[in-house]
């Protein structure tokens, strides 16, 4: 916007932009639902848990596709004047966010597959399968426990990570006044339709 010119702005490609915002919105709903759904009134609880599980599996599919897309389409270079530690922090936090959008749904799916107690009702159109587990019951229990820990603790780490990520995006836009936020926005939202 302010210091950005249409001719010089290198954006994220439309697929990356669509996947970023679709996954971001879903995650922002999934975390509070995940944290509270076990305490919801009984009439909504099972519905909410199943929606959480089915949506989570969709997020996993989108995230795997997004990661492959990203590896095939490098991100635009960061602004020239950015200090080294900020570049390093940006890369580290982005790869941690990629790890989160894959490991969080995968750990959830592994956790419910290990217990295999309730089916994963998939938006009322059938059931999603459980992931295969080893024949050894003790090993299955161990995998389930580990996946549960990952699902629980990674959720809290991710809240902090997302808040830092949001803060960094706003700082770039409002303080540094560079193109870092604009290039991740859909074209129709930017002022000059660059
Ligand atoms: C990106 C996707 C996902 C996010 C962000 C997410 C987030 C969360 C969070 C923050 C919690 C609360 C953790 C706790 O307090 O224990 C939770 C709980 C839970 N999630 Fe997910 N989840 C995702 C995907 C999944 C998937 C794919 C499944 C299963 C197929 C799943 C199944 C569950 C279950 C069963 C619980 C309740 C765990 C308990 O007993 O405490 N989640 N989720
Ligand atoms: C809360 C609102 C959010 C805002 C304002 C935001 C903003 C941004 C911006 C501006 C970039 C581009 C940085 C650059 O130009 O180099 C970006 C990249 C990224 N964001 Fe977000 N984001 C948000 C939420 C999320 C969430 C919830 C996730 C996933 C959990 C996420 C994951 C990522 C990843 C992985 C990248 C790196 C993209 C790449 O270079 O491949 N973002 N975000």
If you had to describe this structure to a student in words, what would you say it looks like?
The protein is mainly alpha-helical and 194 residues long. The chain has one domain: Fumarate Reductase Cytochrome B subunit, CATH 1.20.950. Helices cover 65% and strands 2% of the residues. The protein contains four helices and two strands. The chain has helices at residues 14-36, 42-72, 84-115, 137-176; strands at 120-121, 127-128. It has a two-stranded antiparallel sheet with strand order 1-2. A hairpin with a 5-residue loop joins β1 (120-121) and β2 (127-128). α2 (42-72) crosses α3 (84-115). The longest helix has 40 residues, at 137-176. The chain starts with 13 loop residues before the first helix and ends in an 18-residue tail after the last helix. It binds protoporphyrin IX containing FE (2 copies). One protoporphyrin IX containing FE binds at residues 20, 23-24, 27-28, 70, 75, 78, 94, 97-98, 100-101, 162, 165-166, 169, 180-181, 183-184.
Question: Which short descriptors sum up this protein?
Answer:
two-stranded antiparallel sheet, disordered N terminus, single chain, 65% helix, mainly alpha, Fumarate Reductase Cytochrome B subunit, 194 residues
Give the helices and strands, then pairings.
Layout: H1 14-36, H2 42-72, H3 84-115, E1 120-121, E2 127-128, H4 137-176
Antiparallel strand pairs: 1-2
This protein binds protoporphyrin IX containing FE (HEM) (2 copies).
CA gyration radius, whole angstroms: 19 Å
What is the spatial order of strands in the main beta sheet? 1-2
> Any idea how many domains?
1
Helix content: 55-70%
CATH class: Mainly Alpha
* H/E series: HHHEEH
The hetero compounds bound to this protein are:
protoporphyrin IX containing FE
Instruction: Give the helix/strand class.
Output: mainly alpha
Oligomer: single chain
The chain-level mean pLDDT equals 93
CATH architecture classification? Up-down Bundle
Largest sheet: 2 strands, antiparallel
What is the strand tally? 2
Shape: elongated
Summed up, the helix count is 4
CATH fold annotation? Fumarate Reductase Cytochrome B subunit
Cα end-to-end separation: 9 Å
